[in-house]
Amino acid sequence: xxxxxxxxxxxxxxxxxxxxxxxxxxxxxxxxxxxxxxxxxxxxxxxxxxxxxxxxxxxxxxxxxxxxxxxxxxxxxxxxxxxxxxxxxxxxxxxxxxxxxxxxxxxxxxxxxxxxxxxxxxxxxxxxxxxxxxxxxxxxxxxxxxxxxxxxxxxxxxxxxxxxxxxxxxxxxxxxxxxxxxxxxxxxxxxxxxxxxxxxxxxxxxxxxxxxxxxxxxxxxxxxxxxxxxxxxxxxxxxxxxxxxxxxxxxxxxxxxxxxxxxxxxxxxxxxxxxxxxxxxxxxxxxxxxxxxxxxxxxxxxxxxxxxxxxxxxxxxxxxxxxxxxxxxxxxxxxxxxxxxxxxxxxxxxxxxxxxxxxxxxxxxxxxxxxxxxxxxxxxxxxxxxxxxxxxxxxxxx
Amino acid sequence: xxxxxxxxxxxxxxxxxxxxxxxxxxxxxxxxxxxxxxxxxxxxxxxxxxxxxxxxxxxxxxxxxxxxxxxxxxxxxxxxxxxxxxxxxxxxxxxxxxxxxxxxxxxxxxxxxxxxxxxxxxxxxxxxxxxxxxxxxxxxxxxxxxxxxxxxxxxxxxxxxxxxxxxxxxxxxxxxxxxxxxxxxxxxxxxxxxxxxxxxxxxxxxxxxxxxxxxxxxxxxxxxxxxxxxxxxxxxxxxxxxxxxxxxxxxxxxxxxxxxxxxxxxxxxxxxxxxxxxxxxxxxxxxxxxxxxxxxxxxxxxxxxxxxxxxxxxxxxxxxxxxxxxxxxxxxxxxxxxxxxxxxxxxxxxxxxxxxxxxxxxxxxxxxxxxxxxxxxxxxxxxxxxxxxxxxxxxxxx
Lengths: 398, 398
What we know:
The structure is a homodimer.
Chain A: H1 5-10, E1 12-13, E2 19-20, E3 29-30, H2 33-48, H3 52-55, H4 61-70, E4 80-82, H5 86-100, E5 106-110, H6 115-128, E6 133-137, H7 142-145, E7 150-156, H8 168-177, E8 181-185, H9 197-200, E9 204-208, E10 221-225, H10 227-230, H11 269-280, H12 287-308, E11 313-314, E12 326-330, H13 334-343, E13 346-347, E14 349-351, E15 355-359, H14 367-383, H15 389-392
Parallel strand pairs in A: 2-13, 5-6, 5-7, 7-8, 8-9
Antiparallel strand pairs in A: 1-3, 4-10, 9-10, 11-12, 12-15, 14-15
């Protein structure tokens, strides 16, 4: 049965007069989230108190939520666990992968990776000692750069700036042929495009839930470890909830079974309440259909902008195969243009130095929204109405 | 003005018929928390969407919450930041401290430290390479074990099992004399006892908010770095929000100013909403008075139990100077006894192998509660009513 996008849209709270093309940065709230949260706070935390860990199933939530997300990224049940932030999960995955490939010293990534992934890799290399090195190349040079010095290929599947999509299966295959492992960051993939970690034979994957999975600001991250590695990988961040027997309170660490060892500390139960409500929307939803509809919306937007605002230059690949769920345009005055656009109720975001970024999330964005966004942006460009001091002053977060 | 404990008690939701002596594990909910959460979800997340990071001040929350907590632990404004879990913060503090003491290779801790701290240290030593070592001694042997091989002394101020309290100022002084740095875990201190990190000249401190600070299950942790170290310490977990300029999206890491560099990833805004509501209770509260009242309640409990249930053996030091905010008794059948007690509505917890643990939190526990808890426990011991199969089956979390 095809997705009823009008019905999914009705499940989200969208502010009056706003067209929200920034779900790739922070997803909107599902209408059921406040009630879910209130119930968890009142019926579980306030009434059960410490007993909530057992009686309300809190202790099992990171794995239970992991299973709900697993379906959306082509992972088997029991291979994904929630917790921490994406940066922390990158560190865990990377440290485990490096330890599994002990004769090599190079982490290969690309300049389109989200900077925090690169920073975490840099920090890990420092901690591991001088012999480790992070090497970054341009996105289109990744394949050629995978050689027998590379221990781990660490990439974000969809580029946060341009929306350019790597071929996960191809790159993973090449990495394996060269004796390297892979760490895939699915920040702009999970809930946006069909992902099949199993088919791609990915080794590790990480992702966040507050973008396309709509878990709310600061929602927990997730980590996937391929079943063939799950009992071998050593989590560098060896916290008590990843211990084989956390409540034995042993003085030495023994990693838990499989993916459980990737847990670290006490999980954020309240953030997970919002996530749980948000994931209900995904029941029965096929990501292939979501992505196909996203591509239609993207094409509508690209065509509209290129026709009516040709001074904006497309930064996203034209090929559907190389696209995620966002479209980016470049303009030297991108920051001011985006501020003017937001002032008109069309919310995208700006990424330095010159990128205007727009996310197309069919669960709550439709053709009419896209048509209106095109009109508003074209009008701003026509009248040059971005060229005002109030749009040019940069706030800390954009 | 002395604290009106009846008034503070009225601010908490406490379930009907329950005496809650486990606030040292998970604090109860303040009555204002659900409304605060609903407002943050509806007025900020749902209405502002991505704009919440600026307009609702989300980006500044980790430092703002840090300042609220700083007052409770004797830290100056701008020296504490929120985020992640306690285990992660232990790793950060420890890695920074080791790097600042580069000629030494030993982390000294004690067997009364919370196991996750030891596990994180173990994981860090593995990552740093074979030359680093975690050495643990008995709590009473710590002072003597601080020698010129020790790089970092890492201790939890109040022992999670026995409630035994270290002398932070003395140990820190000794550590500094021997050229070592200190990492203090305040999990059972913050909101429980007067802490003065500044006066003690502590180097690093970490703590959690879901115990005595009542932020709810999985609330974020905090980290303190002494101002003299804050611009020197290198966070091993170098995430983008600790970058000098996160939204420049540079490809290489440059640590942010002072405590900001200890931030890692996107902060948990919803958990922080609950924390913010919970911290309101602390306005104008003097920890010295809270602790003095806690000691009175503890003494009442100890006297009652030793009189009426002498088969339970006190595991907590008798000296007020060596006590935190909890009292523990040992009994070989501790697990079953605690289950029987919980079944009667008196909630403490059990810690393997034989510890019955009770927290005395004057903000919501009073003399009548303690008297009733003593009666119920004494009666259970008198009648041996813990000796039933249903109390002996261990659940995963206790």
